[in-house]
Amino acid sequence: MVRITRRFYFSAAHRYRVDHWSDQRNQETFGPCVRTHGHNYVLEITVEGPVDPRTGMVMNLTDLKRIGNEVVSQFDHRHLNDDLPYFQNTLPTTENLARVIYHLVAPKLPKEVRLYRVRLYETEDLFADYYGEQENHRDLALLGRRYRFSAAHRLHSPELSEEENQRLFGKCHHPQGHGHDYLVYVGVYGPIDAQGRVADLAEMDQAIQRVLAPLQCRWLDQEVPAFQHQPATTENLALYLWHQLQPLRPPVVLLHIRETRNNFFEIGGKEL
């Protein structure tokens, strides 16, 4: 089975408001999103299937482009709450919008191709994955969020000699260290609730920022105890954050760290 992905773009407005709630409760729950606002959405449609021995393709990308454009045209330059039937009784959250798009795309695909995932970016820092799965009659989705912190490190292993460290780590072994602006993508996976959310974003942000705060503007291998006896590689940093984030609910199933624009490190995945 091979997966292929096609990307699409649309712009739309929406608001978050539960009509039978008070203004105060809506404001406390959704903050400024109670007002009409908009986004430049980025949609990724991923399909999977066997490679056709005659064409060498899973699916003709021209056909996938046509299907995606047909679906996206319903949402482009629309007010999601007011113009579309899908959100008359539910909020147009990123999770709900991904779910709606999934169910619009799936029936249009050839029978030999399966829709693997719809990923929808509301902003560069927030996305939702929907896989079309249900568990105990509850829809499940992945909510992904991007965070940032800046830190220094020096790659050095106490198990190796100075010569071995220098040979292995090269310029990253410089005694004065070096630093990065780390990008951390955290994905939590769980049921979509009555408000169309996998998680309360404000609570999720607070919990993850508490984990990241001790790393911000620190020299990892000198100031963070976890790295004083092991190399402060990004692999070890990923493992450290993975274990620190495990108490979160819904559970973290994806951790992706970008150390530089060329180096990415990842633990987990939706399959877990």
Report on the structure:
Strands 1, 2, 3, 4, 5, 6, 7, 8, 9 and 10 form a 10-stranded mixed β-sheet that branches. This protein has 2 domains: 1-135, 6-pyruvoyl tetrahydropterin synthase/QueD (Tetrahydropterin Synthase, Chain A, 2-Layer Sandwich); 145-272, 6-pyruvoyl tetrahydropterin synthase/QueD (Tetrahydropterin Synthase, Chain A), CATH 3.30.479. The chain is 26% helix and 34% strand. The chain has helices at 23-30, 61-72, 80-83, 94-105, 162-169, 201-212, 220-223, 234-245; strands spanning 2-14, 37-49, 78-79, 114-123, 126-135, 138-153, 178-191, 218-219, 252-258, 264-268. The mean pLDDT is 95. With 272 residues, it is α+β, with helices and mostly antiparallel strands.
Question: Topology of this structure?
Answer:
Elements: E1 2-14, H1 23-30, E2 37-49, H2 61-72, E3 78-79, H3 80-83, H4 94-105, E4 114-123, E5 126-135, E6 138-153, H5 162-169, E7 178-191, H6 201-212, E8 218-219, H7 220-223, H8 234-245, E9 252-258, E10 264-268
Parallel strand pairs: 1-3, 6-8
Antiparallel strand pairs: 1-2, 2-4, 4-5, 5-6, 6-7, 7-9, 9-10
